[in-house]
C-alpha cells in the first residue's frame, strides 16, 4: 500500500476522487486487504442463510471486485429456504445480481473451494451452512463468534457489512460507478441493516451514504415492498404483549422472529402512545438478539441507551430519537445463563434510568464546597473560526467519531478541537478570555496524535464536505481561567448553557466542572482527558 496519510486519503474521498485510497488506523491488529486474496483463481463468496439485503449487497461488491481481476467467482447462499421477501426478490431482479441458491443437499456434495469468503457472517456460525473449503476468509461486521481465520476483517463498530466492503473497495481504488447497480445495492444494504438509517452510529457509514451513486427510484421501490401480511400479523400481536414501567414511562416488547425493519415499525407505533416516552422492541435470531430503541424526550438519547443495553455483549447506536443494536447469544448466555430476555431488558432499562442525574445548567446552582479548584494546562489545541470557512447563516453538521453536531455559522462561533480530537463549540468572548492564538496550522502540531476518524464539516445547503483540520489553527490556554471540579460518583446528563436540546453525558469517574467566573457554565470532562488537561491549584 502507498505511504499516504489518513488525512490525505480522507481528503481525496471527500473531494470525490475516484482513485483515493482509504486507510483507517486501528489500535490493534493488521488490516486485511482484498489484494491479499488475489492469489486465488477460484473464489466462492457465501452469504448467510436466509439472506438479507446487507449480505447480498456486500457479497456482490466482492463479486464485482474479483471478477474485475479475472478470477472465476461465484456468489452463493444456502440453507433450507430460498429468498422469499418481496423487497429482496426485487433487489435481485432489478439490480440483476448473480446470486445463486445452493440447497443443503447440493452443499453437502460440493467439492472443497479453493477460497471461500463468508460475508456478513462467520464460518462455522449458526446462521451459515458450512461449505467445504481449502482456505477461508471472513468479512463481517458482527461480534466475533467463531475461530478467526487467517484472512479476516471483522469490524463490529460499523452499521453494515456493506460499509466494510465499500471501505475495502475504496482502499484498492475500485471504481464503484462502473459496476451496474453496486452503489444502489451497498446503499440499500446499509439502509436495511440500520433500520432505514435510524441506527447509524459510525461516521464511516455516513461517509458511504454521501459517496455512493444511487438509483433513488429503486430504493423507493424496495422500501415500499418491505412488509408481508405475516409480518403485519407479527407486529399486531407484539403490540398487545407489552410490559410497561410507570415510574420511568418506558415499554418493552418481545416480538416473534422477523425482519429488523419490523422491530422499527413496532417501536415507532409504540412511541405514539401518550404514556410511553421510551421503548425497546426485540426479537431472537439464530445468533443473538436484535433490538430497536425509540425516545421522544430530550433526557434520553436513544443511541446512548442502545449502547448501554448491548454493553459488553454486542453493539448498539444510532440517532438521538431512533437507535438499535445486537446482543450476541453466546455472550448473553455467559453473563445471564438463567435470566429470560424480557427480564433482562426490563431490568437493564430500570438500571439505566437509576444510573444518572439530570442537570439543567441554566438554572442549576452547583455546590462548590465539595469541589477543588483547577487550572487548565497550556497545551496547544485547535480552533476554527466558523465564518472564515462558510458564510454566516450556513447550516452545518460537524461529523465526529462521537456523533454529529448540528450548528449554524455565526459571527462569534468558534469550533474547538481538543487534544484527543474531541469537538466542542465556543463563543468569541470566552475564547478570547481563555486562549491565546498562535500562527501555526493545526496539522503541523507535533503533539497531534492519530485518530480513528478525522472530523469533517458538511454544508447542509449543498452537501459539500470539508476536513475541519484543513482550516484549523492553533491556540494555547492562557491559564487565567479557573474551574472547580470533582470526580463523579454517579452518572450525569448536563444540558449546557450553549445547548439546551442535547445533553453531555458524564460517567462515574469523569469530572463535573464549572467555571469560576460563570456558575452556570457547567460541563463534563472525560476522566483521561481531564487528567491530561488540568492541574489542581494549591491554595
Can you describe what's shown?
The protein is an alpha+beta fold and 539 residues long. Helix content is 27%, strand content 28%. Strands 3-2-1-4-5-6 form a six-stranded parallel β-sheet, covered by helices on one side. A six-stranded mixed β-sheet has the order 7-8-9-10-12-11, with helices on both faces. The chain has a five-stranded antiparallel β-sheet with strand order 28-27-24-14-29, with helices on one face. Helix 9 crosses helix 10. The radius of gyration is 25 Å and the shape is globular.
Briefly say what this structure is.
With 539 residues, the protein is α+β, with helices and mostly antiparallel strands. 27% of the residues lie in helices and 28% in strands.
Secondary-structure topology with pairs:
Elements: H1 6-14, E1 42-46, H2 53-68, E2 72-77, H3 86-94, E3 99-101, H4 104-109, E4 115-119, E5 136-140, E6 151-154, H5 161-171, H6 182-193, H7 203-211, H8 216-223, H9 229-239, E7 242-245, E8 250-254, H10 260-270, E9 278-284, E10 288-295, H11 302-309, E11 314-318, E12 322-328, H12 329-335, H13 341-354, E13 356-360, E14 372-376, E15 381-385, E16 395-400, E17 403-408, E18 413-417, E19 423-427, H14 428-434, E20 435-441, E21 456-459, E22 465-467, E23 473-477, E24 482-487, E25 491-495, E26 504-506, E27 511-515, E28 518-525, H15 527-533, E29 534-536
Parallel strand pairs: 1-2, 1-4, 2-3, 4-5, 5-6, 8-9, 13-25
Antiparallel strand pairs: 7-8, 9-10, 10-12, 11-12, 14-24, 14-29, 15-18, 15-23, 16-17, 16-21, 18-19, 20-23, 21-22, 24-27, 25-26, 27-28
Amino acid at each position: 500500500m502507498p505511504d499516504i496519510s489518513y488525512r490525505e486519503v480522507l481528503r481525496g474521498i471527500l473531494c470525490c476522487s475516484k482513485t483515493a485510497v482509504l486507510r483507517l488506523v486501528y489500535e490493534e491488529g493488521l488490516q486485511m486487504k482484498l489484494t491479499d486474496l488475489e492469489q486465488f483463481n477460484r473464489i466462492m463468496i457465501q452469504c448467510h442463510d436466509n439472506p438479507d439485503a446487507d449480505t447480498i449487497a456486500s457479497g456482490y461488491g466482492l463479486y464485482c471486485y474479483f471478477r474485475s481481476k479475472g478470477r472465476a467467482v461465484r456468489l452463493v447462499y444456502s440453507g433450507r429456504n430460498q429468498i422469499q421477501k418481496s423487497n429482496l426478490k426485487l433487489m435481485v431482479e432489478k439490480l440483476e445480481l448473480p446470486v445463486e441458491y445452493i440447497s443443503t443437499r447440493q452443499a453437502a456434495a460440493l467439492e472443497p473451494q479453493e477460497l471461500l469468503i463468508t460475508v456478513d457472517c462467520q464460518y462455522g456460525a449458526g446462521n451459515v451452512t458450512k461449505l467445504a473449503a481449502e482456505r477461508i476468509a471472513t468479512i463481517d461486521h458482527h461480534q466475533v463468534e467463531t475461530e478467526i481465520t487467517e484472512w479476516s476483517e471483522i469490524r463490529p463498530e460499523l452499521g453494515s457489512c456493506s460499509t466494510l466492503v465499500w471501505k475495502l473497495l475504496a482502499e484498492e481504488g475500485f471504481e464503484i460507478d462502473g459496476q451496474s447497480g453496486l452503489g444502489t445495492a451497498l446503499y440499500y444494504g446499509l439502509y436495511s441493516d440500520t433500520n432505514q438509517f435510524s441506527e447509524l452510529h459510525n461516521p464511516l457509514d455516513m461517509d458511504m451514504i454521501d459517496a455512493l451513486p444511487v438509483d433513488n427510484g429503486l430504493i423507493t421501490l424496495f422500501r415500499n415492498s418491505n412488509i408481508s401480511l405475516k409480518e403485519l400479523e407479527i407486529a399486531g400481536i407484539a403490540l398487545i404483549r407489552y410490559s410497561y414501567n410507570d415510574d420511568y414511562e418506558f415499554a418493552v416488547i418481545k416480538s416473534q422472529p422477523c425482519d429488523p425493519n419490523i422491530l422499527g415499525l413496532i417501536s415507532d407505533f409504540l412511541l405514539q402512545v401518550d404514556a410511553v416516552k421510551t421503548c425497546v422492541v426485540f426479537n431472537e435470531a439464530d445468533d443473538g438478539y436484535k433490538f430497536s430503541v425509540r425516545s421522544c424526550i430530550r433526557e434520553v438519547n436513544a443511541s446512548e441507551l442502545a449502547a448501554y443495553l448491548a454493553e459488553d455483549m454486542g453493539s448498539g447506536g444510532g440517532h438521538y430519537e431512533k437507535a438499535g443494536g445486537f446482543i450476541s447469544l453466546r455472550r448473553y448466555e455467559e453473563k445471564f445463563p438463567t435470566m429470560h430476555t424480557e427480564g433482562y431488558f426490563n431490568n437493564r432499562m430500570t438500571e439505566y434510568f437509576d444510573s444518572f442525574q439530570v442537570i439543567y445548567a441554566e438554572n442549576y446552582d452547583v455546590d462548590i464546597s465539595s469541589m477543588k479548584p483547577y487550572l487548565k494546562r497550556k497545551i496547544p489545541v485547535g480552533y476554527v473560526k466558523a465564518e472564515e470557512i462558510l458564510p454566516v447563516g450556513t447550516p452545518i453538521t460537524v461529523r465526529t467519531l462521537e456523533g454529529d453536531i448540528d450548528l449554524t455559522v455565526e459571527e462569534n462561533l468558534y469550533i474547538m478541537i481538543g487534544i484527543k480530537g474531541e469537538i466542542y463549540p465556543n463563543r468569541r468572548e470566552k475564547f478570547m478570555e481563555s486562549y491565546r492564538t498562535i500562527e501555526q496550522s493545526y496539522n503541523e502540531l507535533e503533539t497531534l496524535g492519530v485518530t480513528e476518524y478525522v472530523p469533517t464539516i458538511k454544508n447542509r445547503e449543498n452537501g459539500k464536505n470539508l476536513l475541519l483540520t484543513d482550516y484549523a489553527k492553533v491556540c494555547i490556554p492562557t491559564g487565567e481561567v479557573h474551574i472547580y471540579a470533582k470526580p463523579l460518583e454517579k452518572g450525569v446528563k448536563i444540558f449546557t448553557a450553549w445547548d439546551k436540546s442535547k445533553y453531555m453525558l458524564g460517567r462515574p469517574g469523569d469530572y463535573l466542572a464549572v467555571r469560576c467566573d460563570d456558575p452556570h457554565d457547567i460541563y463534563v470532562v472525560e476522566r483521561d482527558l481531564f487528567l491530561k488537561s488540568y492541574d489542581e491549584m494549591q491554595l
